[in-house]
Write a structure and sequence with these properties.
Blueprint lengths: L13 H18 L1 H7 L3 H11 L27
Length: about 80
């Protein structure tokens, strides 16, 4: 399980959805920093759209209560 309260096929409560968005954003920074940079400010909305398309967001989820600008620790330098 990615996060407590997040299960495949389950509709997430908004606070859990926000945790999933932040966790996914951080994983992207850690595993694919170039893609993170390419997505830029569209990262949060892109992750929310993916959750919505999968049916994981409740009907009350929207721009007002989803974390569309997730904070991530992007201080890691690319090895080289």
């Amino acid at each position: 399980m990615l996060l407590e309260g997040a299960e495949k096929g389950k509709v997430l409560e908004v606070p859990v959805a926000n945790k999933v968005i932040r966790k996914a954003a951080q994983c992207l920074v850690d595993e694919a920093p170039a893609l993170f940079k390419e997505l830029g400010e569209s990262l949060g909305p892109t992750l929310a759209a993916k959750l919505s398309a999968s049916g994981a967001l409740p009907s009350n989820a929207g721009a007002g209560n989803l974390d569309l600008n997730p904070y991530v620790d992007a201080k890691k330098e690319a090895a080289g």
